[in-house]
Amino acid sequence: MTTKAPWDDGPLCYGGDWNPEQWPPEVWREDVALMRAAGVNLVTVGVFAWSRLEPEPGRHTLDWLDDVLDLLHANGIRAALATPTASPPPWFSLRHPDALPVTADGVRLTHGSRDTYCAAAPAYRDAARSIAEVLAARYAHHPALALWHVHNEYGTTCHCPHTEAAFRRWLATRYGDLDALNDAWVTSFWSQHYSDWAQVGTPRATQYLANPGQLLDFRRFWSDTLLSAYTEQRDLLRAANPAVPVTTNYVLGDWVPVDHARWAREVDLVAVDHYPSATGAGAEEQTAFAADLARGWARHGSGWPWLLMESAPNQIHTAGRMHTKEPGRMTRHSLAHVARGSAGVMFFQWRAPAGGAERFHSAVVSHAGADSRVFREATDLGAALARLAGTAPGRVEAAVAIAYDAASGWALRHPGMPRDGLDHPGEAAAAHRALWHAGVTADVVPPGAPLDGCRLLVLPALYLASDATVDWVRRHVHAGGHLLVTWLSGVADEHGRVRLGGYPGAYRDLLGVRVEEFHPLADDEHVPLSGGGTGRIWSETVHPAGAETVSAYAGGVLDGRPAITRHRVGDAYAWYVSTRPDDDTYRHLLTEAAGLAGVTPTCPGAAPGVEAVRRDDGLLYLLNHTDEPQRVPAAGCEVLTGATVDGVVTVAPGGVAVVREEVP
Length: 664
Ligand code: GAL
Known about the structure:
It is a single chain. The protein contains 17 helices and 28 strands. The protein is α/β, with parallel strands linked by helices. The radius of gyration is 26 Å and the shape is globular. The two termini are 40 Å apart. The mean pLDDT is 96. Beta-D-galactopyranose binds next to loops.
């Protein structure tokens, strides 16, 4: 049972990772004064401080953390107190070499970075529990404690003997016996049949393609193993004081072997870290998508709201070079997260260290100190968040849902697929982006989530379809909901075995099509479509079986054959999209599909480049991503300035307006 979470008190959370262990106490005092000036009310403390908390096995030095928490409390700032288990100290690695992780190539890693442990190794788990217990015993009732922040960005894997044994146990639980495992992994192929559990290993480096079922289950196994590492810490922290919520910060990316939707049922608050890789307009699209993912996990897991636990106050680290955020971008992106349901804004990091691997990562207090543009912008954001106090429980209104499934992403990464680079998260993001540009707000939901209020469900390359998922989709359509399915969705069952009889085996009848052959396209290939625009990445031989053709391939081997179809099911349409339309065509298509489902843009009067998010607490967020002032029809009161809005609000270039709308 959890109570009083930080966001329940009214103010939105504001702060970030603070590392007092890197600084002398006089800097702590300066930091806390600066935090107060910036309106900070929550900081993550201790996240990589293990060697400072336990410099030798069993010898704990906590006095400094006592002082830090007392100092925070005296200044009205609360702590998300982290367990430091993402970075074991050197003594741990020397003492327990068997707990150092082994790569798929059989290389055992050594100490020198972070995250260098095997989460299936008993010695690591014992040490992690014991440092968490020490913190729980000392701080569970500290008045500064608002939230436990377990570990940091779970996502590591390993192939050591401990992992192998744990993987076998996990498989035995999942399948019961070897026959079921052989069947699920189709081990009749290439003489892979297992006759003894001892033969089953982790997917280490192989001569040629590895078994796709084994790879998929290995990721699921890691998701469950890391989850158990989290829950055992969570349980002992909860036992020490059930009133304090517990979470861990999610890292996004389909390389991460974590099923965040499933984890959302085990955290008291979904907390995500978000670092857009794009530096231009793509960054706003990525921000909206990440926020809606988090929102979906929270809504169907821990409950409302969620929290942006890390974001960059300034530099974006992209491949090859660092990109400095231009003025206004940090505030706009932060408020985009809040618009979409984050209970606040947290940064990595508060103060930039002088050394260490991430010395050039962005910080609110940069190497230049607090006399800086970043610090001033952070202070202004603190003031803006203060004006939005009490709004964390507001819910976003959306009537389109995009299905997102971690396992489908993992399955499509198998190198034996018909094309490289198949990407379910990327396809979910593309559908979301098309809707974003159409001004239509979308939910992103795990398969099986309740779809009340959803008029159009989109399945974007949702490759895996268990019987339960198929049933979920059918129930939506038979209840009158519209459906839009893109290529490669429903092709395989939950083990990655192809559903036979023509693609997409799971949804042929709903869609009124049968796909006979795939024609993947080269990276630079485009196929013209008769209805306008082009298709990319993928194309297929689609035979209508009840569906009408909306757009056909115009040229190439598929000339004249259907590319996009729709099938009437009751009063609804079930669309099939057998290629990836270019962005404009996809936007038009989704606008039409949404329109036929009765879904219109959130704010039809907003110009392109103005993002509008409407919530059930009466707030309309308007984010102007353009370089021009934008006039948007609205009526009510602008919350950030207190100005009355009488028909039109002007949103400054790169700025944000939040209108508390008048109920007509
Ligand atoms: C996050 C991580 C932080 C820091 C940050 C740098 O993913 O949790 O500890 O490494 O990236 O941008």
